[in-house]
C-alpha cells in the first residue's frame, strides 16, 4: 500500500477529527470519507488506523466487509443488481446477462467512459417484485429486457 498524499491526508483529517472522540468512530469516519470522495482510498487506511489506535487489518476488515465501502472510484451511476435466489428464480440471470451486454461491463466493473459501475448484491428486500435492482439508491422492481434497455439508456445519457 503506497503512502497517502499530503493533500489526501489534509482532506480527511477534519473528518477523522470530527469523529475520533465519539464512541465507535470508525463507521462515521468511513461514511464521511465515502461522502467526500465517493470511495475510501486504500492509502488512507493507515492514517485512520493510527488516529483510532487500531491495526490496519481492523480498518481494512471493516472496509472490505461492508459492500458500500469501495476502495476504487465508481462511475457516475451505480447499478446494484440483485443476485439472490428469488430474483434468479424470476429470470434475474437473463436480465443480468442482458444488462452486462448493454452496459459493456461485468459485475464489479466500471465502464470505460465512467458512466456506470455494476455491482452484485444479495437481496434488496424486493423479493415480491423480483428480479430487482437499485440505481443510484432508487429501487427498481420487476426487471425485464425493456427495463434493462431503459436503465442502460439512462446511465449512458
Blueprint of the fold:
Blueprint: H1 6-19, H2 26-37, H3 45-52, H4 56-65, E1 77-82, H5 85-89, H6 92-103, E2 109-110, E3 116-121, E4 133-135, E5 138-140, H7 145-156
Parallel strand pairs: 1-3
Antiparallel strand pairs: 1-4, 2-3, 4-5
Helix pairs in contact: 1-2, 3-4, 6-7
GO molecular function, one term: oxidoreductase activity
Protein name: Formate dehydrogenase subunit gamma
Keywords: 2Fe-2S, Iron, Iron-sulfur, Metal-binding
Features:
alpha+beta, 157 residues, 5 strands, 46% helix, Formate dehydrogenase subunit gamma, Glutaredoxin, 7 helices
Describe this structure in words.
By secondary structure, the protein is of the alpha+beta class. It folds into 2 domains: 6-65; 77-156, Glutaredoxin, CATH 3.40.30. Helix content is 46%, strand content 13%. The protein has helices at residues 6-19, 26-37, 45-52, 56-65, 85-89, 92-103, 145-156; strands at residues 77-82, 109-110, 116-121, 133-135, 138-140. A 5-stranded mixed sheet has the order 2-3-1-4-5. The protein is elongated and about 50 Å long. The mean pLDDT is 94.
Give a quick precis of the structure.
GO terms for molecular function: 2 iron, 2 sulfur cluster binding; metal ion binding; oxidoreductase activity. [2Fe-2S] cluster binds at residues 82, 87, 123, 127. The chain has 157 residues and is an alpha+beta fold.
CATH topology of the largest domain: Glutaredoxin
Distance separating the two termini: 36 Å
Instruction: Provide the β-strand percentage band.
Output: 5-15%
What is the assigned CATH homologous superfamily of the largest domain? Glutaredoxin
Helical segment count: 7
Oligomer: single chain
Q: For the record, what CATH class of the largest domain applies?
A: Alpha Beta
Radius of gyration: 18 Å
> Helix fraction?
40-55%
Instruction: Give the number of DSSP strands.
Output: 5
Lateral arrangement of strands in the main beta sheet: 2-3-1-4-5
Total tally of structural domains: 2
| CATH architecture annotation of the largest domain | 3-Layer(aba) Sandwich
- Average pLDDT confidence is 94
Amino acid at each position: 500500500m503506497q503512502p497517502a498524499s499530503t493533500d489526501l491526508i489534509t482532506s480527511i483529517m477534519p473528518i477523522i477529527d470530527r469523529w475520533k472522540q465519539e464512541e465507535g468512530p470508525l463507521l462515521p469516519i468511513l461514511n464521511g470519507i465515502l461522502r467526500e470522495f465517493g470511495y475510501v482510498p486504500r492509502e488512507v487506511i493507515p492514517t485512520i488506523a493510527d488516529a483510532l489506535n487500531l491495526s490496519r487489518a481492523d480498518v481494512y476488515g471493516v472496509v472490505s466487509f461492508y459492500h458500500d465501502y469501495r476502495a476504487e472510484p465508481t462511475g457516475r451511476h451505480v447499478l446494484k443488481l440483485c443476485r439472490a435466489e428469488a430474483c434468479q428464480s424470476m429470470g434475474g440471470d437473463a436480465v443480468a446477462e442482458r444488462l452486462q451486454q448493454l452496459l459493456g461491463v461485468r459485475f464489479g466493473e466500471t465502464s470505460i467512459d465512467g458512466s456506470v459501475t455494476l455491482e452484485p448484491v444479495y437481496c434488496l428486500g424486493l423479493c415480491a417484485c423480483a428480479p430487482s435492482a437499485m440505481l443510484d439508491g432508487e429501487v427498481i422492481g420487476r426487471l425485464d429486457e425493456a427495463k434493462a434497455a431503459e436503465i442502460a439508456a439512462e446511465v449512458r445519457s
